[in-house]
Amino acid sequence: MASKEVFQMNRKLVVKRPITVESFKIEKVRSKEGGVVEPFEGMYALRQEDIVEVTASRAKQLLTTSPETFSLKGREEIWEFLDETLVEDETGEIELSELWKAYQDWAQKQGKPPMSKEDFQREIEGLFEVVQSEGKTYLRGLRFKGEK
Questions:
Q1: Long-range contacts of 36-41 (CB under 8 A, 24+ apart)
Q2: Strand bridging mode 136-144 / 130-133
């Protein structure tokens, strides 16, 4: 008798997200008339849970969950730093190591212990478009406030 092979297919949604600080402010999106809010809310939920791959059913759940139930889960500090430090700029580019140094300085001035370099890098790379060039990591579409 021939053995039957059982194949299980797992469907996943892979989220690639060059997301900026401004594009993630749900209140700003909600304030605009027209437009589609639900996809932004779903992406916001995905980001808050550090989910890069989710099943189709979980994606649907996240896309239909109210944004009022989301929390930054301890990430308020990184958002505060980003809002105070960066601005969007189509032609801008920041080296990740420079941003890390700026974050360490900012945390010290705030009297807060900085997150680890690995956690910081993971957070930043999950939020912005990251490119590698000549052995360095850059974030595209951003610049430090005060720079032109």
A1: 38/63, 38/64, 39/63, 41/65, 41/66, 41/67
A2: antiparallel
pTM over 0.70: no
Backbone angles phi and psi of 103, in degrees to 5: -65, -45
What does the alpha-carbon distance between residue 79 and residue 103 come to, in Å, rounded to a whole number?
11
What is 76-144's CATH number, 3.10.310.10, 3.30.450.40, 1.10.10.10, 1.10.357.10?
1.10.10.10
CB 41 within 8 A of CB 67: yes
**pLDDT value at 20 more than 60:** no
Q: Could you tell me which residues are beta bridge partners of residue 12?
A: 55
